[in-house]
Amino acid sequence: MGMWNPWRGCRRVSEGCKYCFIHEGDKKRAVDTSKIERSAQFDAPVKKTKNGYKMKGGQTVFVCFSSDFLIEEADPWRAECWQMIKERSDLHFMFLTKRIERLMDCVPEDWGDGYDNVTIGVSVENQARAEQRLSLFQELPIKHKNIACQPLIEEISIADYLTGIELVIAGGEYHKNARPLNYDWILKLREETVERAIPFEFRQCGTHFIKDGQTYQLNYRQLFAQAKKAGINWYPEKENI
Fold this sequence. Notes:
alpha/beta; single chain; globular; 241 residues; seven-stranded parallel β-sheet; TIM Barrel
């Protein structure tokens, strides 16, 4: 697994951004999140040593987790990124976005029905955003599609938007004032994805987590440990072994 943040900085666009880890982390470091700028690792995928590329082939590279790959301020730089992605066909690039409506204005001319080595995930946090973003997402030409229901701030259904989806992940919100996550919401999403034989991953609980009518307050490490302990991740290929 690799990480590539060609730029940093972001702007809130919807309810799920309220306690965004990018903004919260920048606040602690007294960094202006609204300043979107290219990073020192802008060309990381194509940097070389005398022995070849620094970023070794065959891995998944998570892109722009300090921003949004489709953010407007990055329009002047994105074409170079697509060129690097195209050059590194031995890597698989994955990014999440809350700006999926911008995709067709941001793809390269040879995009066609998508690049084989690119997965795009759409982040949704409530039913209104799920319907808004996923109704568009299902119609877009993308080879590999994921849905991230995170941070989940209310019960939602995505059953109508699962055609062509390769993975659904779900999780709660981390912040002292985080909106609570109800475990029943996670189980409902899991049921919808399992019915369609789509892999499902419960990535993290919320700081305020409700299960069986009881509310728990979890620290950062517990978010991931408790989600793993739930043991509800599901992969159809493993069911057939």
